[in-house]
Amino acid sequence: MTSFPAYARQVRDESLDPVQRRMRLRNCLYRFAPYGFNATWHHLAITHRIPGRIAADPSSLVRALDELEAARAPVLARSVAFAAERRLQKREGRRVPQTPHPWDSWGCHNLAYCPDPRKHPAEPLPLVVGRVLEAYTRRAGPDGGCLVCGEEDWTLWRVCQNCGVASGGRGSIL
Ligand SMILES: [Zn+2]
After folding, report:
1. How far, in Å, is the centroid of ligand 1 from the Cα of 27?
2. Closest by Cα among 115, 111, 93 to 103
3. Which of 10, 45, 112, 128 is most buried by a 10 A CB count?
4. Ligand 1 mean position, distance from CA 100 (Å)
């Protein structure tokens, strides 16, 4: 299975056809997409003005990848720390994780899942992801408002009416 960094290298490879490079960026989203595949793609395409005819501006793909990678770095660090913690707990005979976080079971995916691909936070991805990670570190689960924007009606709606994020993850709205 091709990894995120391998796809990322191909997105930046100017010897490749721009259409192929765009496909590789979409492949990256199968590995890491904080809002889910469609909403994350929509965010990147709007923010970095990825044109329909990609040959007109292939460098937009690299700008989008830069943002995606910056958001992925702290999640990776968190996953590595969590794996180490789990190994320690297992060695001590505790089979059930003491601090289960959604992204551990989702494989770093759908961290701030947005069911409507056109409704997602407008801020930079690293900022939003950082806020979600921080909120989950502070409290055990997504209660007391939207993890991203703080909207308090979140528990009522499950999907935040303000920023579009389902703070409880994809599973909470299915
Ligand atoms: Zn919100």
Report:
1. 27
2. 111
3. 112
4. 22
Name residue 146's amino acid.
C
Length of the chain: 174
Q: Which pLDDT score, from 0 to 100, does residue 46 have?
A: 97
pLDDT of residue 82: 76
Burial (CB count within 10 angstroms: exposed 0-12, middle 13-18, buried 19+), residue 124: middle
How far, in Å, CA of 118 to CA of 131, rounded?
A: 21
pLDDT at 83: 78
Average of per-residue pLDDT across 118-141 = 84
Q: How far is the CA of 58 from the centre of ligand 1 (A)?
A: 32
Distance 19 CA to ligand 1 centre (A): 34
> Could you give the CA distance from residue 22 to residue 79 in angstroms, rounded to a whole number?
27
Question: Residue with structure tokens 């492949």?
Answer: 27
Write down the pLDDT at residue 124: 97
Q: Which amino acid is at 167?
A: S
pLDDT digits (tens, 9 = 90+) for 75-124: 888 877 777 887 888 888 876 665 555 555 555 677 888 999 999 999 99
154 alpha carbon to ligand 1 midpoint, in Å? 7
